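Exercise 3.2. Students should predict the tertiary structure of the chain below and write it as structure tokens, then compare their answer with the key that follows.

Predict this chain's 3D structure.
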Amino acid sequence: MAKLCVTCGARLSKDRAEVKDYCTAQACFAANYRPLRLVEIGQTKTNAEIEILDDRVQRDLAEGRYRRDPIVVTRQASRTFERPKVTFKPFTAPPVDAVKARYVQSLQAQGCTVEDILGRAKRDAPRLRLTRTEVVRYMTGRRI
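Answer key:
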């Protein structure tokens, strides 16, 4: 069964009937049109999110669903901020393998680049299993 316009009774197209319950005639449009109310929800470090303000969005706003910033910093009278108390474990570098370090540093002293060292290590010393990170670390670290 085809859907009819609520104002004039004209038959609505299938696409129009899915969206609105009135036709596009000027009189019907003027009688039934209600502008959309939009809300712009500010985001941290990104563009604002724009939503159509309906019952669902109002409920979500009231519940705090659109709050993207997980840390809320409150302003105090003494111009200080409450900061989350987070402790980080200190960084510990992996242990230095003396054999690998001497191999890399000796090739570096001969003028080899990182790519040259990786190629020679694959060809001449495959048991060392050098990675690019290790080569750079041993080239820039202290001499062994």
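Discussion points: The first helix runs from residue 14 to 19. Residues 98-140 form one domain.
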